[in-house]
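Input structure tokens:
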């Protein structure tokens, strides 16, 4: 580790951002002109007062996607996967659709351009225990509604990467964990990186931040040998290992893309053969939804942005979104974010200058706080601190905005409530309702005292909530932002429709035979239909 006053001088500001955001521990690292600086603040384990260090492992969330894409490139380079444009249905016959979305290829999955709804609500449950096993992911994809025309718009979809993990396993005839170890981790000597089914020493424990900044422990996300979404977000790693990995990516880029110095030296820091197909991995395949004249697109597990730019794979125009690199020389950045309940992660690579930033935190923060630390480091890397925004102010503003978002949604639910009594006897709504794939069900049950009904997602006690009459044949449930955080339900409070269930008849009959759940804002109104079925049809493996 090289001592560098430019970086050590940032430590007080980074600690302040941690305090504002509700971050118990942070580990970060920078590569600048082949020199490496790492530092850590706070605790990996609060109760045990175990400090973070650059070898502490964190769950990476979607930083995993770049690794999954690199595995595919490796399998493609040796012919195990014949073509990037291979239709999914030829590799996984279990995938079958009769519409245009049935023509999905491997590149479509990796670039989030399928146009299919992400349906995160069907796997991400309370206390980090997924609703579904990985074996059900393809069935979800078979029935996912199309919300954009095929291959036209960026629709972020974790199911695509989970399914790609299954493609890797089938093509290579080994587990995803073994493929990761053999093709990436062992060649790069990344000894502090591993898959979902392992536990090791010096692991960061996950936490969630409450509105007052206090922290509560949460369950470990995506843990288990065959847990769903492992290839989308379940890899664990440390700052030291990630810096090794990203130097290998940049070395491959300099080699494959002929970015050489005047002497003809490639300046390779790691064997370039470990990362294959960088021209495909880092090519811009799908434009991102930004209003910008500059390059901003998505590759395979990586986003591309020509600085200055807003850094995000997609952003809420109502949230805090500063430009990064204003006033600095323009250059191409490769980046990604990671967000899984209990952890957030950030990376950015400037391959032309052989520079990189990595930030890992062990919290579901009040404000996506890892971003503010990451962007502060990037501006400093660009020697652009004099043009950079005040990241302390942005951290405060974004924390306040998220707290207000939760209050605003709960207020909208209260205002939207038009009735105090249900339209029918409560018995009319009681039953078990299945999605089109028949692998996710919503139970409507009486409360113990029979005074009201409750919704129970796949029958789990942790995901059971009291329902209140909302409008005709509709009910709603609600949580405060702190209740939501304590359940480890993700960093972004859901929209209004997530909390509303609308009942009716699938065939315009008089009896209640289905319900609609608008659990994703870009689903067509009134949302996804769930049909009432006999509870005996609940499949035992679920």
């Amino acid at each position: 580790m090289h001592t560098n006053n430019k970086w050590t001088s940032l430590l007080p500001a980074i600690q302040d951002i941690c305090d504002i955001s509700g971050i118990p521990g942070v580990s970060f690292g920078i590569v600048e002109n082949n020199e490496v600086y790492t530092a850590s603040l706070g605790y990996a384990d609060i109760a045990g007062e175990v400090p973070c260090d650059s070898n502490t492992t964190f769950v990476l969330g979607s930083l995993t996607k770049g690794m999954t894409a690199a595995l595919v490139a490796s399998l493609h380079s040796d012919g195990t996967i014949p073509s990037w444009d291979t239709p999914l249905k030829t590799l996984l016959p279990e995938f079958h659709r009769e519409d245009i979305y049935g023509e999905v290829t491997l590149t479509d999955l990796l670039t989030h351009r399928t146009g299919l709804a992400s349906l995160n609500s069907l796997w991400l449950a309370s206390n980090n225990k997924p609703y579904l096993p990985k074996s059900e992911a393809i069935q979800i994809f078979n029935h996912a509604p199309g919300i954009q025309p095929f291959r036209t718009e960026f629709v972020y979809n974790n199911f695509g990467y989970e399914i790609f993990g299954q493609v890797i396993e089938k093509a290579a005839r080994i587990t995803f964990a073994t493929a990761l170890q053999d093709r990436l981790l062992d060649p790069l000597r990344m000894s502090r990186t591993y898959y979902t089914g392992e536990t090791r020493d010096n692991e960061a424990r996950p936490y969630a931040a409450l509105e007052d900044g206090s922290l509560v422990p949460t369950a470990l996300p995506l843990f288990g040998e065959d847990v769903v979404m492992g290839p989308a977000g379940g890899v664990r790693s440390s700052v030291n290992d990630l810096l090794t990995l990203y130097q290998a990516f940049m070395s491959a880029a300099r080699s494959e893309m002929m970015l050489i110095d005047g002497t003809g030296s490639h300046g390779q820091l790691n064997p370039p053969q470990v990362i294959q197909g960088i021209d495909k991995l880092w090519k811009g395949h799908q434009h991102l939804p930004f209003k910008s004249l500059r390059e901003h697109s998505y590759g395979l597990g990586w986003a591309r942005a020509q600085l200055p730019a807003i850094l995000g794979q997609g952003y809420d125009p109502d949230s805090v979104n500063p430009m990064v690199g204003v006033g600095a020389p323009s250059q191409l950045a490769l980046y990604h974010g990671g967000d899984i309940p209990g952890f957030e992660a950030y990376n950015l690579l400037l391959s032309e200058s052989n520079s990189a930033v990595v930030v890992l935190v062990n919290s579901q923060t009040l404000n996506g706080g890892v971003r503010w630390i990451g962007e502060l480091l990037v501006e400093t890397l660009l020697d652009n601190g004099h043009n950079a925004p005040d990241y302390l102010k942005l951290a405060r503003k974004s924390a306040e905005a998220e707290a207000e978002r939760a209050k605003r949604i709960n207020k909208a639910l209260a205002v939207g409530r038009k009735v105090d009594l249900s339209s029918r006897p409560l018995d009319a709504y009681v039953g078990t309702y299945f999605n089109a794939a028949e692998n996710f069900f919503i139970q409507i049950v009486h409360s113990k005292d029979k005074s009201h009904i409750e919704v129970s997602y796949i029958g789990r006690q942790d995901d059971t909530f009291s329902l209140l009459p909302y409008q005709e044949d509709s009910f709603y449930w609600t949580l405060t932002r702190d209740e939501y955080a304590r359940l480890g339900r993700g960093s972004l409070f859901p929209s209004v429709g997530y909390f509303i269930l609308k009942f009716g008849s699938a065939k315009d009959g008089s009896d209640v035979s289905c319900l609609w759940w608008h659990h994703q804002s870009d689903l067509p109104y009134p949302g996804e239909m769930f049909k009432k079925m006999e509870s005996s049809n609940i499949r035992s493996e679920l």
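The chain has two domains: 5-403, 417-537. The radius of gyration is 23 Å.
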